[in-house]
Amino acid sequence: EMDPDYRTLNEIDGLLARMNTHPEYSSTVKMEVQRSIFLEAAKHSYAIDVVEGNDAEKKASRIRRLETNGHLQSAWDYLSTYGVDLSTLAVLGNLVEPDGHRYKHFRRVEVAIGTVPPPPAETVPFRMKYLADFLATTTFHPVLRAV
Questions:
Q1: What is the per-residue pLDDT for 48?
Q2: What pLDDT is recorded for position 77?
Q3: Which of 64-68, 114-118, 129-133, 141-145 has the lowest mean pLDDT?
Q4: Most buried among 4, 40, 41, 55, by the most CB within 10 A?
Q5: Averaged over 80-99, what is the pLDDT?
Q6: Which of 89, 71, 70, 69 is CA-nearest to residue 79?
Q7: Residue 16, CA distances (Å) to 29, 48, 89, 145 in order
Q8: DSSP 8-state assignment for residue 89
Q9: pTM of the predicted protein model
Q10: What's the gap between Cα 144 and its chain centre?
C-alpha cells in the first residue's frame, strides 16, 4: 500500500500528464489554476475579509483588496521573471507590502508573530540564503518544494 502523501503526488503527476497531452487545454487550465492559487493566497495570507458596515467602509475594504491583489501579482511576476534566489527573496517584502517595507532587503528589526518567536533579524539573510540554496538544489517533487 502506497503512503497517502505519495499517492496524492502521483495523482497530481497523472493529472499533469493528461493535461500535457492536450496542449489546447493545458494553457487554459494553467491560467485557471494560477488565478485560483493567487486568489486563495490573497484570501488566506492577508486575511482579506469583506468589511461589514456602511458603504464607505465596504468601498475602502474593496480598494485594499484590489491593492493587495496588485501587490501579490507584482511579486508573482517578479519571481516568475527572475526566479527564486537570495536577491529575489529579499525584495518580496517590498513588493507585497510596499508601505511596510520601503527598502528592498530583509528585515533589520525584531518582530513578533503571535506567540512564536521569529529568528533574530541578523540571522534572516543567512536563513534565507540556506532556503534559496536548498530550493535550487533539491530534487523533491515540485509540490513538496512549494510547501
A1: 47
A2: 85
A3: 64-68
A4: 41
A5: 83
A6: 89
A7: 10, 31, 28, 17
A8: H
A9: 0.58
A10: 14
